[in-house]
């Protein structure tokens, strides 16, 4: 039985990590039998991040490598039927979501005080109350520093929205009137874009960014379709 280690459910998603949800989608798309792994401590992961997939003695960190592994292991192609041009667009969409939109989500979750107050209890409720504020303050400082280094944390909330909005418009334009990004069936790009957008929409308090997604009815209908198809 394959084991997926990722963060537990939070804010209406089956994992707090959109990469964890993406990996779940891939497992389901591959038709794999899988279960959740026991520890969700990223410090124990081979690359210090989650998700990690374990298949017997094989350990696969990173959702991108989990995808490649599953496609090979189950002889499936998550982009079946797509042209070379569509595959190129898919690749760019996945990169945009994973390497740009994700950081807007991280800033929204961790840097906006109202969200942080709720996130602290949701993510770190297992830390004894007496030391929770002290420990989590340090973790928040590390996240703030990493967002400064990455760059997204240097933008004001409104600037972050402007940047993320351009990504969201690109996804909406690609989707058009279709059920999924490349037609009537979900592909790898849906498994990446939808969990990321759903995590943004599921913000613990309303933010400019979460409102942008939540107010877009056709986009929300798309997120529901992907959830129903890939991680019900
Ligand atoms: N490229 C990785 C990114 C995974 C990732 O960023 N995971 C975050 C949670 S969403 C994490 O585990 N962070 C822990 C840390 O940085 O200490 C993937 O696609 O799996």
Task: Outline the structure in words.
This protein is an alpha+beta fold. It has 2 domains: 2-73, Glutaredoxin; 84-230, Glutathione S-transferase Yfyf (Class Pi), Chain A, domain 2, CATH 1.20.1050.10. Helix content is 60%, strand content 6%. The protein is built from 9 helices and 4 strands, in the order E-H-E-E-E-H-H-H-H-H-H-H-H. It has helices at residues 18-30, 63-73, 84-111, 113-124, 129-150, 157-175, 188-201, 208-214, 217-230; strands spanning 2-5, 34-36, 52-55, 58-61. The chain has a 4-stranded mixed sheet with strand order 2-1-3-4, covered by helices on one side. A hairpin with a 2-residue loop joins strand 3 and strand 4 (58-61). Helix 3 runs antiparallel to helix 6. The two termini are 20 Å apart. Glutathione binds next to helix 2.
Q: Uncertain runs with pLDDT below 50, 5 residues or more?
A: none
Distance between the termini: 20 Å
Number of strands: 4
Helix content: 55-70%
Helix/sheet category:
alpha+beta
Q: Largest sheet at a glance?
A: 4 strands, mixed
- The ordered H/E elements are EHEEEHHHHHHHH
CATH fold-level label of the largest domain: Glutathione S-transferase Yfyf (Class Pi), Chain A, domain 2
